[in-house]
Specification:
This protein is an alpha/beta fold. It folds into two domains: 148 residues, Spo0b-associated Gtp-binding Protein, Chain: A (Distorted Sandwich); 161 residues, 3-Layer(aba) Sandwich (Rossmann fold), CATH 3.40.50. Helix content is 18%, strand content 24%. It has five helices and 14 strands. A six-stranded mixed sheet has the order 10-11-9-12-13-14, with helices on both faces. Strands 3-1-8-5-6 form a five-stranded mixed sheet, with no helix packed on it. A three-stranded mixed sheet has the order 4-2-7, with no helix packed on it.
C-alpha cells in the first residue's frame, strides 16, 4: 500500500549538562569539569523506495538521542547520535510551525529538520583569577522540536491519465512488464503504480472523474502525482461513445487543480482498439484529430506493433 501523505513530530536531542569536577589537589590544580555533548540532530534523507513513508503510518514521534554529560579532566561528554529519517525522492517536507518547505529530489539528499541542543559548560569554563574553584556549570539546551507534514509527489517521466476503466493499468503492464491488478470496474487502481520502460519511469495515476479536483472519487489525493511528470499519456477507451467529452472532463479537472498541467506534452491514446471494426476506428481517430489538433494513437494490449509504436512516440516526446 502506497502511503503518500503523513504528519509526524520530530525532536532533536537535548545537550548534556556540564559538570563540576576538580583534580585531586583541589586548590593547586583547579577545576576540570568538561562540557556536555551536543544533542543529536534530526535529518530527512532521500531514498529511491517509493513506499518509504509506510513506516510513519503508525509511529508518529521520533526523538534523536541526547548528548551525555561532561566529564572530569576537561573532557566533553559524547554527542548524541544523529537520527536519519528516510523519505522517498519526490517528498515535499513542510514545517507546520514556521511554514518552511523543502523538497527531496535526489537519493542521499539530506535536509536538517531539527538541530540538537548545545551541551552545557562545565566548571572549567568558569575559572578566573578571582574564582579559582568555581562551582558553576550549565545545563544542556533542549533540541529543536517540530511537527512536519510529508507529502509524496511521484517523480516519473510519463503519467498515464484518464477516466476509470480506460485500460491504463493494462497498458502499463504491457509497456513495462509490471504486474498491476486490472479489472472491468471503476477504481481497480487505488494507488499510483510505477513501471520502467527502457529506464523511462511510467506512473499509472488512478482514474479521475468529474469533480476530482474538489475531492470526488479518489479526488485530489492522486492529482499531485501528475505534477512532476514530463509528458502525459491521456487514455480514452474506444468502448465509449463520447470520446471528446471524456477527454474534456479530465482536461478540465487538470486545469482546476493546476493550470500548468495543461502545458505538459500530451499523447492521446485510444485504447481497446481490438474491440471495434477498422472502419469505425479510423473514423474515431479522424474525429479526435479534428477536435484536438493532436496526434492520435490507437492501441490494443493484444497488438504488439501498436504497443511498440507507442513506445517510440514516448521516447520521441521525452527527447
Amino acid at each position: 500500500m502506497l502511503i503518500d501523505e503523513v504528519k509526524i513530530k520530530v525532536e532533536a536531542g537535548k545537550g548534556g549538562d556540564g559538570v563540576v569536577a576538580f583534580d585531586k589537589i583541589k586548590m593547586s590544580l583547579g577545576p576540570t569539569g568538561g562540557r556536555g555533548g551536543n544533542g543529536g540532530n534530526v535529518y530527512f534523507q532521500g531514498i529511491s523506495d517509493v513506499f518509504a513513508l509506510r513506516k510513519y503510518r503508525h509511529k508518529k514521534e521520533y526523538l534523536a538521542p541526547n548528548g551525555k554529560n561532561g566529564r572530569n579532566n576537561r573532557s566533553d561528554g559524547p554527542m548524541g547520535k544523529d537520527l536519519f529519517l528516510t523519505v522517498p525522492i519526490g517528498t515535499v517536507i513542510r514545517n507546520m510551525k514556521n511554514g518552511k518547505i523543502f523538497e527531496i529530489t535526489q537519493p542521499e539528499e539530506k535536509f536538517l529538520a531539527a538541530k540538537g541542543g548545545l551541551g552545557g559548560r562545565g566548571n572549567f569554563f568558569f575559572r578566573s583569577s578571582k574564582n579559582t574553584s568555581p562551582q558553576e556549570f550549565e545545563r544542556g539546551k533542549s533540541g529543536e522540536e517540530f511537527d512536519f507534514e510529508l507529502e509524496l509527489k511521484l517523480i516519473a517521466d510519463t503519467g498515464l491519465i484518464g477516466l476509470p476503466s480506460t485500460g491504463k493499468s493494462s497498458l502499463l503492464n504491457e509497456l513495462t512488464a509490471t504486474n498491476v491488478r486490472v479489472g472491468e470496474y471503476h477504481f481497480t487502481t487505488l494507488e499510483p503504480n510505477l513501471g520502467a520502460m527502457k529506464n523511462i519511469i511510467i506512473a499509472d495515476i488512478p482514474g479521475l472523474i468529474e469533480g476530482a479536483s474538489t475531492g470526488k472519487g479518489l479526488g485530489i489525493k492522486f492529482l499531485r502525482h501528475i505534477q512532476r511528470t514530463k509528458i502525459l499519456l491521456h487514455c480514452l477507451s474506444l468502448e465509449s461513445e463520447n470520446l471528446f467529452e471524456n477527454y474534456e472532463i479530465v482536461r478540465k479537472e487538470l486545469e482546476k487543480y493546476n493550470p500548468e498541467l495543461l502545458l505538459k506534452k500530451e499523447i492521446i491514446v485510444l485504447t481497446k482498439s481490438d474491440l471495434i471494426k477498422k472502419e469505425i476506428l479510423l473514423k474515431k481517430i479522424e474525429y479526435m484529430k479534428n477536435k484536438t489538433n493532436e496526434k492520435i494513437l490507437a492501441v490494443s494490449i493484444h497488438n504488439l506493433d501498436a504497443i511498440q509504436s507507442l513506445e517510440k512516440e514516448i521516447e520521441i516526446a521525452l527527447n
